[in-house]
């Protein structure tokens, strides 16, 4: 039977998932989609993702691929799988890609957004997607200045959790941004790749800069001197979202994958 390679753009609310990667006796995004595919193909399948999000982390446009029989049109897979998936995972679109195309290895960058909610009053409707941080005022300009230090190619082992299989900690940081839209602060980072736990550890340290606990000089010294022991706090998972993944050649229109995670407005 002839095969074709199918690419997927995937959204998921990470709240009730133990991350992307398949794990024994755990609910994961990869496993759930693989199971749905297998109900159609009647054979085991491996889904290859562009990145491995942690427990509780969301994705607005994760990308993955798998091999499938060519008798099913590629564009139909999105509907077929959505009819078999739970409410907290969705296939935005599906398309055929060349056999040399790989969701992980063909990607040139990934972008994450972290959202903080700074109003002292809790809000049920933003709680699943934000870190409710109201203990101290945060200066977004200081956070932006700290982020700009990271632009370029750096060894960022200070922002890497133990347990990784990655052979090095070099990261090409391509874009950074910190913007306030009362009462929200949005932190975005785009890089060639992300270390295990990098964004949550980075945001944890950035908050210490924003609240005045650490200076810009201390922030730079910590990561430049690889002082992992000084990065003690990881931001909560629910505030983090994989926004999008970039490829030189991508079969999907930008409105499908480029900007699909809303910024909250309270009014």
Taking all residues together, what is the mean pLDDT? 96
Quick one: how many beta strands? 10
CATH architecture of the largest domain: 2-Layer Sandwich
CATH topology of the largest domain: Alpha-Beta Plaits
The top-level CATH class of the largest domain is Alpha Beta
Helical stretch count? 6
Shape: globular
What low-confidence regions span 5 or more consecutive residues with pLDDT below 50?
none
Query: Strand fraction band?
Result: 25-35%
Order of helices and strands: EHEEHEEEHEEEHHEH
Kindly, what is the distance between the CA atoms of the first and last residues, rounded to a whole number of angstroms? 56 Å
- Count of the separate structural domains: 2
How is the biggest beta sheet arranged? Answer: 10 strands, mixed
Q: Which structural class should the secondary elements be placed in?
A: alpha+beta
Q: How many whole angstroms does the radius of gyration measure?
A: 19 Å
CATH superfamily of the largest domain: Pseudouridine synthase I, catalytic domain, C-terminal subdomain
Helicity level: 10-25%
